# Entry
Amino acid sequence: MSVSKFVMGTALMATFTIAAANNFAGRSVEDKLRDATSKPEAIMSMMAIKKGDAVLDFLGGGGYYSELLATAVGAQGKVILHNNQAYLPYVDKALEQRLSGNRLPNVTSLVSEYDDLKLGDEQFEHIFLVLGYHDMHYVDKGWEMNIDVVFPQLHAALKPGGQLLIIDHQSAPGRGTKDTKSLHRIEKSFAIKDIESRGFKLLKDSDLLSNQTDDYSQSVFEKSLRRKTDRFVLIFTKQ
# Structure
């Protein structure tokens, strides 16, 4: 299998720029600080986001990526910022601030559940799933998710040749899905095999957000690891 490898230098080719994103009035200090560790210019370049594209920010939380995508796709494009009810208590204030006053007119908030995501068929050129893929591999009180139900809907929602971005926290080698609930980590090799079994083909595998000093035995919510975990970046295309 031929898979492209991308490194940090990719950012130099990006047509999307943080400077352009910062032209949106009210972009938060927190978002600007996060740019240093999330490296969105390089991510946008790898995804080849174009003006006029439609993008789904799936389980998008407070909408950090949705705001950046709003710049990338322009006025003729659209961004759907998805959350489920379980996410809302954690992100509702951030969403209200981000979307208040119609400051992002090409971003629409969608709240829907895993068994009926209400996405439609062949609607999007791109789907972003950032730090949420691991959450589909466990069930907890107040958290219902079934990847066997979710992924067919995501696959159907992508246009032919559309791309799926997965960014997630790496687990220790050999752990597979064992740490998804306790540490919120998942193994990259498992993710590739799993997602390719669901109608996608791996196109790009980047070490852009890699951190080999990460402590894989710790939860990603440990204060000392905040925004510093070893994260894998995978881009798949719809088959």
Summary: Helices lie at 18-21, 29-38, 40-47, 64-73, 88-99, 147-157, 188-196. The CA atoms of residues 78 and 106 lie 5 Å apart. The chain has seven helices and eight strands.
